């Protein structure tokens, strides 16, 4: 396939996805059956999360954005001898492995997709849609449910524990091995209600299960926490999700039993803690005296961070606006590792 042929297929996929988002997810017909099946298999994937993930994918698949992005990689415009790349996908949020799959296929290489059992329904549907739009992709995609074999390189996403296994198992292959990452927000105390609502999306989208979800806040010493937790309520519907609320009640009981100081607004907990990785339904916070003093902390912890959300212009690290963590552009790579440049090294 020529590059333009591959691009056109993904653009059409984006258009199809957008048309699906605009329709109600009726579990009796069309994509609604797929969504219903996915939620039955994984209760963390309700319709709202599935639609949000589809919206993020359609956001990536804008024709102008794809064509602008591929200009950075001259090798894409040449014919190559396709390599076979195994992509081991995570299943923490719906269709989280899409970007890796898309990058492999746009590069002209073949994809072996090792789907997570938590997200095999949606990813299978998505890749089948692509093959329906461009049948030539059927020769480039293998969905592997057993042991991986006959591949040239690996892209694997998982936890810190699984990463150690991946490092050992795939040590003979060119690879990208991803570990746990989190996102944080630096508040100044001058945030508008619109920005607080955006931060609420950054925290609670997908119930906080993604690496782009904010799990920790940095706040000024004189920050009004009580006022803050009364305002960050635009996603309070998460309390009606059984698994999320069970985690909220469990962590609340632990903090009460241990007499750990925390703030509670009825559906999530805010706790002062130096750790980065907070439990479900909990957000950690840490106080700072001067915002510029955080630069050293960010430098030391950059290998653990996916996104930094803030409206401050005093931070040296790259930041993104409130409410944008779950809407990455096509050129925003996980862990800031350029997957397309990695694929170029295989040629």
Low-confidence stretches: none
Give the strand order, joined by hyphens, for the main sheet: 8-9-10-7-6-11
Helix content: 25-40%
CATH class of the largest domain: Alpha Beta
How many strand segments?
A: 11
The proportion of strand residues reads 15-25%
The biggest sheet, with number of strands, parallel, antiparallel or mixed sense and barrel status, is: 6 strands, mixed
Oligomer: single chain
> Order of SSEs, N→C?
HHHHEHEHEEHEEHEHHEEEHEH
How would you characterize this protein structure?
With 347 residues, the chain is an alpha/beta fold. It has two domains: 3-180, Aldehyde Dehydrogenase, Chain A, domain 1 (3-Layer(aba) Sandwich); 182-310, Aldehyde Dehydrogenase, Chain A, domain 2 (3-Layer(aba) Sandwich), CATH 3.40.309. Helices cover 38% and strands 16% of the residues. The chain has twelve helices and eleven strands. It has helices spanning 3-21, 31-41, 47-60, 63-70, 98-106, 120-133, 160-169, 193-204, 225-231, 242-258, 295-300, 339-344; strands at residues 84-88, 110-114, 141-144, 153-157, 175-178, 182-186, 214-220, 263-264, 269-272, 282-288, 305-310. The strands form two sheets. It has a six-stranded mixed sheet with strand order 8-9-10-7-6-11, sandwiched between helices. Strands 3-2-1-4-5 form a five-stranded parallel sheet, with helices on both faces. α1 (3-21) packs antiparallel against α3 (47-60). The longest helix is centred in the first third of the chain and has 19 residues, at 3-21. The two termini are 16 Å apart. The relative contact order is 0.13. The model has no long low-confidence stretch (mean pLDDT 95).
